[in-house]
Amino acid sequence: MDTAFVWDQHFVTDLDSVDEQHHALVDLFNELSRGLFSKRSDREVVLADTYARLLAYTEHHFQEEEALMQTFGVDPRHVESHRCMHQQFVEQVIMLWAQRTTMSDPATTLVGFLTSWLGLHILGIDQSMARQIKSIQDGMLPADAYDKERGNHDNGTQALLKMIGKLYTALTSQNAQLALANQTLEARVRAHQRAGSSQHAPESAVQYRCFAGDCQPRALQ
Ligand SMILES: [Fe+2]
Question: What is the pTM (predicted TM-score) of this model?
Answer without folding.
Answer: 0.74
